[in-house]
Amino acid sequence: MLVTIQIQDDLLSTLLTHAQDAGSSVESFIEETLREALSQPVAENTVVEGLLLAAIEGVAQIKSKAEFSLDDVIDAGDWDLMTGGERKSLGRRFRKEAEGSGVAKWLRRNSGNKAIYQKL
User: Fold this and answer.
1) Is the pTM of this model over 0.85?
2) What SS3 class is residue 42?
3) Shortest CA distance to 86 belongs to which of 45, 57, 30?
4) For labeling, which of 8, 32, 99, 107 is most exposed (least CB within 10 Å)?
């Protein structure tokens, strides 16, 4: 398949240098690099996985029967650094894990559209 893309000059220069250093054609180098990159776990999954574990551990600090939101159980700095997509992914995974393990249950969404949970 023939694909045409625009690449910034500095990136193209680096690409050409890396391909030459590897002793590969540009096409082969691009293909190998893409295959390697696509076989790696997505960085977002790594971020979300780490924060998911921290959030589940953070629930232990919440009093029984108390209501909380996800940003109450993880570090505020981590929450602020996440993208909207990462927050959504974390929220979905947190709900599944929290309810599945019996540490909390989902109650409702508040006026700010945050999921509200209750510690069990």
Assistant:
1) no
2) coil
3) 45
4) 8
The domain locations on the chain are 9-39, 43-119
> What is the per-residue DSSP string for 62-83?
SPTT-EEEGGGSS-HHHHHHS-
Strand partners, 104: 119
Tell me which H or E stretch contains 86: helix 84-101
Q: What are phi and psi of 101, to 5 degrees?
A: -95, -5
User: Which amino acid makes up residue 97?
Assistant: E
State pLDDT tens for residues 20-44: 888 889 888 888 888 877 775 555 5
